Amino acid sequence: MTRCHEIRPYLEAFVDDELSTDNALRVEEHLGSCSTCGEEVRLTRALKRSLRDTILEEDRPTLAFRTRLAEVLAEEVAREEQRAPVAIPWRKRVTPVAFAAAAVAVLSLSNGEWSKLSGWSTSLSLLSGEAASRSHDDESAPTHQGASVVANPQKIIDQLVQYHQAATEPEVTDRSALLRFEPQVGVPMRIPELQQYGARFLGASVVPVERHRAASLRYNLGEHRVTVYLFNPQVVPVRSLQELQLRVIGDRAVFVGMRNGYSIAAIEQRGVGYMIATDLDDRESAELLASIR
Questions:
Q1: 259 pLDDT tier (thresholds 50, 70, 90)
Q2: How many domains is the chain partitioned into structurally?
Q3: CB-CB contact of 62 with 121 (8 Å)
Q4: Is residue 139 part of a domain?
Q5: How many CA atoms lie within 13 A of 200 on its CB side?
Q6: 87 confidence band (pLDDT: 50, 70, 90)
Q7: Nearest-5° angle of CA 259, CA 255, CA 283?
Q8: What was the pLDDT predicted at 26?
Q9: Are residues 285 and 157 located together in one domain of the fold?
Protein backbone atom coordinates (compact mmCIF):
# COMPACT_ATOMS: atom_id res chain seq x y z
CA MET A 1 0.00 0.00 0.00
CA THR A 2 1.37 3.42 -0.97
CA ARG A 3 2.00 5.81 1.92
CA CYS A 4 1.06 9.48 2.06
CA HIS A 5 4.64 10.79 2.14
CA GLU A 6 5.35 8.90 -1.08
CA ILE A 7 2.32 10.35 -2.87
CA ARG A 8 2.27 13.98 -1.69
CA PRO A 9 5.09 15.14 -4.03
CA TYR A 10 2.91 14.04 -6.96
CA LEU A 11 -0.39 15.65 -5.88
CA GLU A 12 0.02 19.07 -7.49
CA ALA A 13 1.21 17.54 -10.76
CA PHE A 14 -1.75 15.16 -10.54
CA VAL A 15 -4.16 18.10 -10.21
CA ASP A 16 -2.52 19.73 -13.27
CA ASP A 17 -2.74 16.46 -15.29
CA GLU A 18 1.03 16.42 -15.72
CA LEU A 19 1.76 12.92 -14.42
CA SER A 20 2.58 9.93 -16.54
CA THR A 21 -0.13 7.29 -16.80
CA ASP A 22 1.48 4.89 -14.33
CA ASN A 23 2.08 7.58 -11.69
CA ALA A 24 -1.43 8.97 -12.17
CA LEU A 25 -2.85 5.49 -11.54
CA ARG A 26 -0.76 5.17 -8.36
CA VAL A 27 -2.11 8.50 -7.09
CA GLU A 28 -5.71 7.60 -7.95
CA GLU A 29 -5.38 4.27 -6.16
CA HIS A 30 -4.02 6.01 -3.06
CA LEU A 31 -6.74 8.69 -3.11
CA GLY A 32 -9.37 5.97 -3.12
CA SER A 33 -8.25 4.87 0.34
CA CYS A 34 -6.88 8.11 1.88
CA SER A 35 -9.36 10.84 2.80
CA THR A 36 -6.58 13.22 3.93
CA CYS A 37 -4.84 13.28 0.56
CA GLY A 38 -8.22 13.35 -1.18
CA GLU A 39 -9.17 16.49 0.75
CA GLU A 40 -5.82 18.06 -0.16
CA VAL A 41 -6.47 17.38 -3.86
CA ARG A 42 -9.96 18.91 -3.66
CA LEU A 43 -8.62 21.98 -1.89
CA THR A 44 -5.82 22.42 -4.45
CA ARG A 45 -8.28 22.13 -7.34
CA ALA A 46 -10.67 24.63 -5.76
CA LEU A 47 -7.91 27.16 -5.10
CA LYS A 48 -6.49 26.84 -8.61
CA ARG A 49 -9.93 27.26 -10.14
CA SER A 50 -10.72 30.28 -8.00
CA LEU A 51 -7.33 31.85 -8.77
CA ARG A 52 -7.76 31.24 -12.50
CA ASP A 53 -11.20 32.86 -12.51
CA THR A 54 -9.85 35.88 -10.62
CA ILE A 55 -6.89 36.36 -12.97
CA LEU A 56 -9.09 36.08 -16.06
CA GLU A 57 -11.49 38.65 -14.68
CA GLU A 58 -8.74 41.11 -13.67
CA ASP A 59 -7.16 40.89 -17.13
CA ARG A 60 -10.42 41.85 -18.84
CA PRO A 61 -10.70 45.57 -19.70
CA THR A 62 -13.19 47.34 -17.47
CA LEU A 63 -16.55 48.54 -18.73
CA ALA A 64 -15.49 52.13 -18.00
CA PHE A 65 -12.43 51.76 -20.25
CA ARG A 66 -14.39 50.11 -23.05
CA THR A 67 -17.04 52.84 -22.89
CA ARG A 68 -14.37 55.55 -22.93
CA LEU A 69 -12.58 53.91 -25.86
CA ALA A 70 -15.81 53.68 -27.84
CA GLU A 71 -16.45 57.40 -27.21
CA VAL A 72 -12.95 58.36 -28.39
CA LEU A 73 -13.33 56.28 -31.54
CA ALA A 74 -16.76 57.73 -32.28
CA GLU A 75 -15.45 61.27 -31.88
CA GLU A 76 -12.54 60.55 -34.21
CA VAL A 77 -14.88 59.05 -36.82
CA ALA A 78 -17.12 62.12 -36.66
CA ARG A 79 -14.11 64.43 -37.00
CA GLU A 80 -12.84 62.53 -40.03
CA GLU A 81 -16.25 62.70 -41.69
CA GLN A 82 -16.30 66.50 -41.32
CA ARG A 83 -12.93 66.97 -42.99
CA ALA A 84 -12.99 67.83 -46.71
CA PRO A 85 -10.72 65.43 -48.62
CA VAL A 86 -8.13 67.30 -50.68
CA ALA A 87 -5.27 65.25 -52.05
CA ILE A 88 -6.51 61.88 -50.85
CA PRO A 89 -10.18 61.54 -51.86
CA TRP A 90 -10.52 58.01 -50.47
CA ARG A 91 -9.44 58.99 -46.97
CA LYS A 92 -12.90 60.10 -45.89
CA ARG A 93 -14.38 56.75 -46.74
CA VAL A 94 -11.57 54.55 -45.44
CA THR A 95 -10.68 56.18 -42.13
CA PRO A 96 -14.10 55.88 -40.42
CA VAL A 97 -14.32 52.26 -41.49
CA ALA A 98 -10.84 51.59 -40.12
CA PHE A 99 -11.66 53.15 -36.78
CA ALA A 100 -14.94 51.29 -36.56
CA ALA A 101 -13.13 48.04 -37.26
CA ALA A 102 -10.57 48.91 -34.58
CA ALA A 103 -13.38 49.49 -32.09
CA VAL A 104 -14.89 46.11 -32.82
CA ALA A 105 -11.50 44.43 -32.50
CA VAL A 106 -10.64 46.11 -29.21
CA LEU A 107 -14.02 45.63 -27.57
CA SER A 108 -14.12 41.93 -28.46
CA LEU A 109 -10.56 41.02 -27.44
CA SER A 110 -10.04 37.87 -25.45
CA ASN A 111 -8.05 38.12 -22.22
CA GLY A 112 -4.88 36.77 -23.79
CA GLU A 113 -5.00 39.08 -26.80
CA TRP A 114 -5.72 42.15 -24.74
CA SER A 115 -2.32 42.30 -23.06
CA LYS A 116 -0.57 42.37 -26.45
CA LEU A 117 -2.33 45.60 -27.42
CA SER A 118 -2.08 47.51 -24.16
CA GLY A 119 0.51 49.91 -25.59
CA TRP A 120 -1.58 50.50 -28.72
CA SER A 121 -4.67 51.25 -26.66
CA THR A 122 -2.73 53.86 -24.67
CA SER A 123 -1.72 55.64 -27.88
CA LEU A 124 -5.25 55.40 -29.21
CA SER A 125 -6.61 57.29 -26.21
CA LEU A 126 -4.54 60.30 -27.29
CA LEU A 127 -6.34 60.63 -30.65
CA SER A 128 -8.60 63.32 -29.27
CA GLY A 129 -7.00 65.77 -26.86
CA GLU A 130 -10.22 67.47 -25.91
CA ALA A 131 -12.11 64.20 -25.43
CA ALA A 132 -9.30 62.58 -23.45
CA SER A 133 -9.11 65.52 -21.06
CA ARG A 134 -12.70 65.20 -19.90
CA SER A 135 -13.35 63.46 -16.60
CA HIS A 136 -15.85 60.63 -16.40
CA ASP A 137 -15.74 60.09 -12.64
CA ASP A 138 -19.45 60.31 -11.88
CA GLU A 139 -19.78 59.69 -8.14
CA SER A 140 -23.54 59.47 -8.41
CA ALA A 141 -23.22 56.24 -10.42
CA PRO A 142 -20.60 54.13 -8.60
CA THR A 143 -20.94 51.18 -10.91
CA HIS A 144 -17.65 51.08 -12.80
CA GLN A 145 -15.10 51.53 -10.05
CA GLY A 146 -13.68 48.06 -10.27
CA ALA A 147 -10.11 49.33 -10.28
CA SER A 148 -10.39 50.94 -6.83
CA VAL A 149 -10.44 48.28 -4.13
CA VAL A 150 -12.33 49.19 -0.97
CA ALA A 151 -9.89 49.65 1.92
CA ASN A 152 -12.06 48.12 4.66
CA PRO A 153 -13.88 44.99 3.45
CA GLN A 154 -14.80 44.06 7.05
CA LYS A 155 -16.95 47.19 7.24
CA ILE A 156 -18.75 46.00 4.13
CA ILE A 157 -19.58 42.68 5.82
CA ASP A 158 -21.10 44.64 8.72
CA GLN A 159 -23.17 46.73 6.32
CA LEU A 160 -24.52 43.73 4.42
CA VAL A 161 -25.41 41.89 7.63
CA GLN A 162 -27.25 45.00 8.85
CA TYR A 163 -29.26 45.11 5.63
CA HIS A 164 -30.18 41.46 6.19
CA GLN A 165 -31.31 42.24 9.74
CA ALA A 166 -33.40 45.23 8.65
CA ALA A 167 -35.41 43.20 6.09
CA THR A 168 -36.82 46.28 4.35
CA GLU A 169 -39.36 46.01 1.54
CA PRO A 170 -37.72 45.02 -1.77
CA GLU A 171 -37.66 47.41 -4.73
CA VAL A 172 -38.81 44.74 -7.18
CA THR A 173 -40.48 41.36 -6.82
CA ASP A 174 -40.30 40.28 -10.47
CA ARG A 175 -37.11 38.38 -11.29
CA SER A 176 -37.11 39.73 -14.85
CA ALA A 177 -36.71 43.27 -13.46
CA LEU A 178 -33.32 42.43 -11.95
CA LEU A 179 -31.50 43.15 -15.22
CA ARG A 180 -31.97 46.86 -14.63
CA PHE A 181 -29.68 46.56 -11.59
CA GLU A 182 -26.63 45.69 -13.73
CA PRO A 183 -25.57 49.31 -14.53
CA GLN A 184 -25.73 50.21 -10.84
CA VAL A 185 -23.89 47.17 -9.49
CA GLY A 186 -21.44 46.83 -12.38
CA VAL A 187 -21.65 43.05 -12.79
CA PRO A 188 -24.06 40.70 -14.63
CA MET A 189 -27.16 39.75 -12.66
CA ARG A 190 -26.65 35.98 -12.64
CA ILE A 191 -29.49 35.03 -10.32
CA PRO A 192 -28.87 32.05 -8.00
CA GLU A 193 -31.31 29.19 -8.58
CA LEU A 194 -32.12 28.04 -5.04
CA GLN A 195 -35.50 26.42 -5.68
CA GLN A 196 -33.94 22.97 -5.36
CA TYR A 197 -33.39 23.75 -1.68
CA GLY A 198 -36.98 24.92 -1.22
CA ALA A 199 -36.08 28.63 -1.24
CA ARG A 200 -38.77 31.08 -2.38
CA PHE A 201 -37.73 34.35 -4.04
CA LEU A 202 -39.30 37.38 -2.30
CA GLY A 203 -37.73 40.33 -4.11
CA ALA A 204 -34.58 42.38 -4.64
CA SER A 205 -33.10 45.81 -4.09
CA VAL A 206 -29.90 47.74 -4.73
CA VAL A 207 -28.12 48.72 -1.51
CA PRO A 208 -25.24 51.18 -1.01
CA VAL A 209 -21.94 49.71 0.14
CA GLU A 210 -19.72 52.67 1.00
CA ARG A 211 -19.22 54.40 -2.40
CA HIS A 212 -20.43 51.39 -4.38
CA ARG A 213 -23.54 49.28 -4.87
CA ALA A 214 -24.59 45.66 -4.34
CA ALA A 215 -27.73 43.80 -5.35
CA SER A 216 -29.67 42.30 -2.43
CA LEU A 217 -31.83 39.25 -3.23
CA ARG A 218 -34.19 38.01 -0.51
CA TYR A 219 -35.49 34.46 -0.10
CA ASN A 220 -37.54 32.46 2.38
CA LEU A 221 -36.30 28.98 3.18
CA GLY A 222 -38.85 27.42 5.49
CA GLU A 223 -38.72 29.53 8.63
CA HIS A 224 -35.37 31.03 7.69
CA ARG A 225 -34.61 34.29 5.91
CA VAL A 226 -31.82 34.21 3.34
CA THR A 227 -30.23 37.24 1.68
CA VAL A 228 -27.88 36.79 -1.27
CA TYR A 229 -25.75 39.77 -2.30
CA LEU A 230 -24.20 40.22 -5.74
CA PHE A 231 -21.26 42.63 -5.96
CA ASN A 232 -18.22 43.58 -7.98
CA PRO A 233 -15.30 41.41 -6.75
CA GLN A 234 -12.81 44.02 -7.96
CA VAL A 235 -14.33 46.39 -5.41
CA VAL A 236 -14.63 43.76 -2.67
CA PRO A 237 -12.13 40.94 -3.32
CA VAL A 238 -13.46 37.81 -1.64
CA ARG A 239 -9.97 36.83 -0.48
CA SER A 240 -9.63 40.13 1.39
CA LEU A 241 -12.39 39.11 3.82
CA GLN A 242 -9.84 37.99 6.40
CA GLU A 243 -12.33 37.00 9.10
CA LEU A 244 -13.82 34.33 6.85
CA GLN A 245 -12.30 30.86 6.70
CA LEU A 246 -11.83 28.78 3.58
CA ARG A 247 -13.99 25.69 3.26
CA VAL A 248 -14.09 23.29 0.31
CA ILE A 249 -17.57 22.21 -0.79
CA GLY A 250 -17.21 19.68 -3.59
CA ASP A 251 -14.82 21.40 -5.97
CA ARG A 252 -15.63 24.94 -4.81
CA ALA A 253 -13.67 27.21 -2.46
CA VAL A 254 -16.16 28.98 -0.18
CA PHE A 255 -15.25 31.48 2.56
CA VAL A 256 -17.45 31.18 5.66
CA GLY A 257 -17.83 32.86 9.04
CA MET A 258 -20.19 34.41 11.58
CA ARG A 259 -21.12 38.04 12.21
CA ASN A 260 -23.60 39.32 14.81
CA GLY A 261 -25.01 35.82 15.21
CA TYR A 262 -25.63 35.37 11.48
CA SER A 263 -23.91 32.87 9.24
CA ILE A 264 -22.18 34.41 6.22
CA ALA A 265 -20.45 32.86 3.24
CA ALA A 266 -18.75 34.38 0.20
CA ILE A 267 -17.63 33.10 -3.18
CA GLU A 268 -16.52 34.48 -6.53
CA GLN A 269 -17.96 32.90 -9.66
CA ARG A 270 -17.30 33.98 -13.26
CA GLY A 271 -16.44 37.54 -12.33
CA VAL A 272 -19.34 38.05 -9.91
CA GLY A 273 -18.98 38.19 -6.14
CA TYR A 274 -21.67 36.53 -4.01
CA MET A 275 -22.25 36.74 -0.26
CA ILE A 276 -25.03 35.09 1.71
CA ALA A 277 -26.35 36.13 5.13
CA THR A 278 -28.75 33.88 7.03
CA ASP A 279 -29.53 32.23 10.36
CA LEU A 280 -28.73 28.79 8.92
CA ASP A 281 -25.56 27.11 10.16
CA ASP A 282 -22.34 27.84 8.29
CA ARG A 283 -22.31 24.45 6.56
CA GLU A 284 -25.79 24.98 5.09
CA SER A 285 -24.90 28.53 4.04
CA ALA A 286 -21.73 27.30 2.33
CA GLU A 287 -23.65 24.58 0.47
CA LEU A 288 -26.25 27.08 -0.74
CA LEU A 289 -23.55 29.37 -2.09
CA ALA A 290 -21.51 26.54 -3.61
CA SER A 291 -24.55 25.58 -5.71
CA ILE A 292 -24.22 28.81 -7.72
CA ARG A 293 -22.76 28.15 -11.18
A1: confident
A2: 3
A3: no
A4: no
A5: 6
A6: very low
A7: 75
A8: 84
A9: yes
